[in-house]
Structures are given as structure tokens and as C-alpha cells.
Specification:
By secondary structure, this protein is mainly β. The protein contains one helix and eight strands. It is 7% helix and 33% strand. The longest helix has 11 residues, at 14-24.
């Protein structure tokens, strides 16, 4: 049986195109308001904090912590059938935004727990696209007791 290729995001919205263009270059960037310096994701034209329409793409650390996760046991697309079970993680990033990404194939989903440190990596899916994935951060990646704020840094 031949499996279908995995679906990849296809966006016409210029903000999402830009987000994935940075990912393809191995860079995690989020929008940052030029007026109040609040971070935001997913991308949108107006700051939810101060309502400014002035923003820029700013480099993110790629570090965060597990906020929530789910384990996928049934592939909802044939392109993922060989990978089940796998984990989809909601990461609370150092910048205060949340990012949803798949847990790296190298990490076991059964070791997930709240507040475990994460690091973003990129999985190339074509010449033009790479998807952010999470890997479990190793000892020394975070200082003990490092808190990841749920509020944007301003």
C-alpha cells in the first residue's frame, strides 16, 4: 500500500507565508508590537494589547515549556499512519506566546509532563517549507527553576 504524502500548510495570508518562510530558514520569529513591545502568535494585523497596527518580526529564543499535549493514536490522514502514536504539544514560549507543534520523532511521548522544558527545531518537508517541532530540552538547556511567563514581556 502506498501512503499519501503528508499535508503541509498552504496559506494565502502574507503573515503566515512570512512565518513559514522564516521557519524554512531555521528561524523562529513571532510578531512583536512596535508600540507596546508585546509578542503575539498566531500572526495577525493588530496588537491585542494596545491595538497598534505597527509590528515587526522578531527572533524568538525557541525555548519554552510544556503547557499541554495530546497523544494521537489514530491517524486522521494516511500520511501520518506510520507515525502513530505521536504527540502534539502546546508550548508556552519564553516570549509569552503559545505555539502548537509536533514532538520530535526522537523523543518519546510517554515522558511528557507539564512544565518540561522544550526547544524548537525545524523539520524540512519540502525545499520551500520547514515545520517547527518541539524536542525535549536536555539538562543544562534551562537554569533550574526558570519560569516561563504566561504574559508577554513588555
Amino acid at each position: 500500500m502506498t501512503l499519501l504524502a503528508r499535508p503541509v500548510p498552504a496559506f494565502e495570508d502574507a503573515m503566515w507565508v512570512a512565518f513559514y518562510a522564516y521557519c524554512a530558514r531555521g528561524e523562529l520569529r513571532f510578531q512583536r508590537c512596535r508600540q507596546c513591545t508585546g509578542w503575539r502568535h498566531p500572526p495577525r494585523p493588530m496588537c491585542p494589547l494596545c491595538h497598534s497596527e505597527r509590528w515587526e518580526w522578531s527572533a524568538a529564543t525557541g525555548r519554552g515549556r510544556v503547557h499541554s499535549w495530546t497523544i494521537v493514536h489514530q491517524a486522521f490522514h494516511p500520511g501520518f499512519a506510520a507515525d502513530v502514536p505521536y504527540a502534539i504539544v502546546l508550548g508556552e514560549m519564553e516570549e509569552g506566546v503559545r505555539l502548537i507543534a509536533r514532538l520530535s520523532k526522537m523523543d518519546e511521548p510517554d515522558v511528557l509532563a507539564l512544565d518540561i522544558p522544550l526547544q524548537v527545531q525545524f523539520e524540512p518537508v519540502s525545499d520551500e517549507m520547514a515545520l517547527p517541532t518541539f524536542s525535549l530540552a536536555r539538562a543544562g538547556d534551562f537554569a533550574p527553576g526558570t519560569a516561563v511567563s504566561s504574559e508577554p514581556k513588555v
